[in-house]
Amino acid sequence: MAVDVGGTETKAALFTGSGDDVVAVARQRLATPRTGDGATTADAVVETVAGLVAALGERAGRPVDAVGLVVPGVVDEEAGTGVYSANLGWRDHPFRARLSERVGRPVAFGHDVRAGGLAEVRLGAARGLRDAVVLPIGTGIAAALVVGGRVLAVDGEIGHVDVGHGEPCGCGSTGCVEARASSAAIARRFTARTGRPVAGAADVAALVRAGEKDATVVWREAVDALARGILVLAALLGPRAVVLGGGLALAGDLLVDPLRERLDELTTFHRRPELRLAALGDEAGCLGAALLALDTPEEKR
Ligand SMILES: [Zn+2]
User: Which fold, 129-278?
Assistant: First the structure.
């Protein structure tokens, strides 16, 4: 059983299989419970997951052997705790212990972006690569760093690397990658420039395709910031590929082609990572949670 808790939506699926061969036999999505404060929200999440374990197990007509749970924010995989979530408000919540006590099954606990990266490496766009970066671009920009075939359990913030454009970021700093290149920034900057409201970056992308001048400038500046962020990753880690995911990657070639071009212009001696589009969409986190549960040693189940 795999559960991916997001800021607004929780996705669950019951998988059968082993190793890298997994098939979903039941799925459910529901709103992430939110209560007054972070601690009670965390308790409500544990209760919701326990309910899903019972419901999906019953629907699929089979017992649940193990549970994989992934959450956003700062996560300590070793301790099994959600250290901090700005969005959902919890601090130092012992998710793994609480949930395993509640459902009487072994629980694997992880970070949503890192689990999604694990899934893209084992089942998706970066399959077979030992060194890659999986970069979901949505409201913010995060990264799962895959080195030597393993996802590093580190809390870096590639979205807040200063790439020199000088504009303020919500984090309080200036010049951050995500202040120009996140989906939210693209929509916000287009509206600031033109006074025209848009529903999101997809609207701006459509205007770029139609040749609209302001949208094209905003898009080009986003691509430049993203290219400079990727160069930092390339300089530090030398990944074979960068897998672009999240809502912005739905722009496809409109994102990949100018990004490849910009990287070629900016790259001097280091190898430009191959750019790929994520293959698993918004299922990546859930699949990653399933892999974490399946990787739990048999004797612990
Ligand atoms: Zn920032």
Answer: Nucleotidyltransferase; domain 5 (3.30.420)
